[in-house]
Amino acid sequence: MMEVDKYFELKETIKNIGFDKELEFIENCLAHPCNDHNEFATEYIWVVLNAGMKYQVAVRIFSKIIEGLHHNIPVEYIFNHKSKVSGINHVYERRESIFAQYESSDDKITYLESLPWIGSITKYHLARNLGLNVCKPDRHLVRIANKYKTEPHILCNELSSSSGDLVGVVDFVLWSCGNQRLL
Length: 183
Fold this sequence. Notes:
This protein is about 70% helix and about 0% strand.
């Protein structure tokens, strides 16, 4: 299992290489869960763009889509992935009712998987960004957990217990390290 000192060292490293704002964003999401349909739609769009796409590319496209939506520019004029655009349009156009269904759901994570482009792993990414304290077992976390001969949820839970950081924060720190090939 990863030692907590190693975790704190990695956390400082990702802050120093430019992930400090993203880490702060995750901490804020977990401290203040989503309570607005527009924020819900924005996080949905972010997670859909990240699915199967490099983070660095998704950031650029995401900014353009959000700006376009604010100026009533159709998503398909900005992003050329018909299936993802269809999902984004579906959720964005129905964001008030979809958010109300999410809010009233007894099992929010399962509900998220009912949305277009949200699958068995991305549901955890969206859940975390909406403020649920979970780990998303994506390829980076699976690879890192395998290195320590464990599962992503176990690794994140144990580091959370020993560090005092929330599971979602540990998840982000480890993901960032995986994304940057630090682990």
